[in-house]
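User: structure tokens for this one?
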Amino acid sequence: MFSGWGLSWGGWLDNRRGEWFLLAQLLLITAHLLPPWPAPADWGLGMWPRPVFIVGVLLLLSGFGVAAQAFTALGSSLSPLPEAKQGNRLILQGPYQRCRHPMYQAVLLCSLGVALSIGSLLHLILLMGLVAVLGGKARREERSLLQLHPEYAVYRSTTPAIAPGLPWLDWRN
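Assistant:
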């Protein structure tokens, strides 16, 4: 499954397959391990509101669920890079019926879940960074998919990109 991803030292240096998008994504995801800032106690709250915490945990868990579905649906077409693997299959079933990039949707759901569950502005800023990076990564990925799969144009015009109705996360043309 991990073969054919096209990762190389040269790519990390010159971004030939979009490696810098992957690097930015990994750094932002890893930064979610940082403690909340400011801490809810700094806001005068002894404890973060339980309903907000529960919603955050549910979003985090739903993100993991969406990721598992997308991971399974992609099979051997899975790649962490925005440049599509040669010979990949165009997946239009399962979570790909709801949106064109469910793996990115899953990452954003998890990030939002973390930010809400711990009450952290820092983590909300990390979420915004992920929105920017994943929106750009998805656009680059789609240019590659259009070259490999001309039928992708019809799918792109009818299916939301990452999150329906959000301008940077839903472009259909």
